[in-house]
Structure formats: structure tokens, C-alpha cells
Specification:
This protein has 238 residues and is an alpha/beta fold. The chain folds into two domains: 152 residues, Rossmann fold (3-Layer(aba) Sandwich), CATH 3.40.50.300; 66 residues. Helices cover 37% and strands 25% of the residues. A six-stranded mixed beta sheet has the order 6-7-8-3-9-10, sandwiched between helices. Strands 2-1-4-5 form a four-stranded antiparallel beta sheet, with helices on one face. Strand 9 and strand 10 form a beta hairpin. The longest helix is centred in the middle third of the chain and has 14 residues. It is globular. Keywords: ATP-binding, Nucleotide-binding, Transport. It comes from Phytohabitans flavus.
């Protein structure tokens, strides 16, 4: 089966700083891929490039056989790319249910038609009892779950997760792990995360970046035992 996401020599420069440096990735349909690395490795910038939030300085991005390098985030969302940001992005004055219904309406057509699938999503993510609560009143962990529900409402084929565990309590972190394990089996996921326990439990393949450059990819067990990865995190020279 053809890879669903391919990046070819993907590069992003900010003046003299090369934030992402000629990254080549190939991700299969249904794969759970994690991107890890020390601060400043280029992980979030890579997600921004895939989502269309920023334009590359060089290279190409292909999604499901299409060249989407020049496409904006709205077109990529219509093609099936969903995104969860580092900080939950919800509509604070809307109820939890209405947040998901509005997100679902963008792909299903009409908020009223989207309320039933929105209720089902809230139930799946453990937020059914918060359906009538304004998003501004939710805890940080609940807002994170809500944003995941909003992304799933668009029925993405590729879900981009940017540090979903950031700022979560122990209970919220455990709930997040359950939510990720329950994601649809055929959905491709690209996860950026500092919590390596979550990464190793979730990912099929882990890719390591350092200073915007590709270091290595492997299974969680291979990455956990890799001397090269320890050097990347410590800054040691190979």
C-alpha cells in the first residue's frame, strides 16, 4: 500500500536559522509515528509544515499521492489532515457539545445534522457529562480532550498531535493515554511529544530529530536502547 504522507527534502529557514533541514519521511496508512528530540529540534515546525500553517523554504509534501506543498491549511483539512495544537484551541464561549458540532459541520454540513455524531464523540472521549458546559469552564485536560473530539469530528485520515500531554495532571495523562489507544485503527497519527513513556506506549515507529535534522527512526524498543538517540539528547558528538 502506498504511503499516505511523504516529505521530500522538507526545509524551513528563518533567516540564517534552519529550523527543519531537508527532512525525508514516509508514513504508511494507519501508522502511529512519533517525532521526538530535544528542545529546538524542529518538531513543531515540522507539524506546522505538514498542516500548512507555514510554507516550506524548500522540498515537497505529498499526501495520499497529491502534492500539497502549496496548499493552505483549509484545503489540507478538507483532504483529511486534522491538527491538535500545543495549547488547546477551542471556542471558549460555546458549550462542549457546540464546539464539536461546529467542527463536525465543516465536514458533514450543518450544525443541526452534526449534533448526534458530536454527542457520540463526547461519549467516546468521556466528556458526555460536560456537554452543556461552556468550554471556558473546563479543566486543561478536558479542553485537550475536547480539541481531540473536535479534530475527530472532521473524520481526518491523518491526525497531527502536538504535545497533547503538556500540562496534564496524572489523572488527565492516564485518560489521554486511553483516548489515544481508542483512536480509529485505520487513522494515521503523527505525534510530537516530550513524554517518552507515552511515545513508547503509543507509537509504531519513532523518528528522532536534532537541530532540525533527521537522526534515526526505529521501533520504540530500538529507540529506547539507541546510543545514537542518547547522544542526540545529550548533545554529545558522535
Amino acid at each position: 500500500m502506498a504511503d499516505i504522507l511523504i516529505t521530500e527534502a522538507l526545509t524551513r529557514r528563518y533567516g540564517s536559522l534552519v529550523a527543519v533541514d531537508r527532512i525525508d519521511l514516509r508514513i504508511a496508512p494507519g501508522e502511529r509515528r512519533a517525532i521526538i528530540g530535544p528542545n529546538g529540534a524542529g518538531k513543531t515546525t515540522l507539524l506546522d509544515l505538514v498542516a500548512g500553517a507555514i510554507r516550506p523554504s524548500g522540498g515537497r509534501i505529498r499526501f495520499d499521492g497529491r502534492d500539497i506543498t502549496g496548499s493552505g491549511p483549509a484545503r489540507r483539512a478538507r483532504l483529511g489532515i486534522g491538527r491538535i495544537h500545543q495549547r488547546p484551541a477551542v471556542w471558549p464561549s460555546l458549550t462542549t457539545l457546540d464546539n464539536v458540532a461546529v467542527a463536525a459541520a465543516q465536514s458533514r454540513g450543518g450544525v443541526r445534522r452534526s449534533r448526534r455524531p458530536a454527542i457520540e464523540l463526547l461519549d467516546r472521549l468521556g466528556l458526555a457529562d460536560q456537554a452543556g458546559v461552556e468550554a471556558a469552564r473546563l479543566s486543561h485536560g478536558q479542553r485537550r480532550q475536547l480539541e481531540i473530539a473536535m479534530a475527530l469530528a472532521g473524520e481526518p485520515r491523518l491526525l497531527l498531535l502536538d504535545e497533547p500531554a503538556a500540562g496534564l495532571s496524572a489523572v488527565e495523562f492516564e485518560r489521554l493515554g486511553e483516548v489515544l489507544r481508542d483512536l480509529p485503527e485505520g487513522m494515521t497519527v503523527l505525534l510530537v511529544e516530550h513524554r517518552l513513556d507515552l511515545v513508547y506506549a503509543f507509537a509504531d515507529v519513532v523518528t528522532v530529530l536534532r537541530d532540525g535534522q533527521y537522526v534515526v527512526s526505529g521501533t520504540p524498543d530500538e529507540i529506547r536502547m539507541s546510543h545514537t538517540v542518547r547522544q542526540a539528547y545529550s548533545g554529545a558528538v558522535a
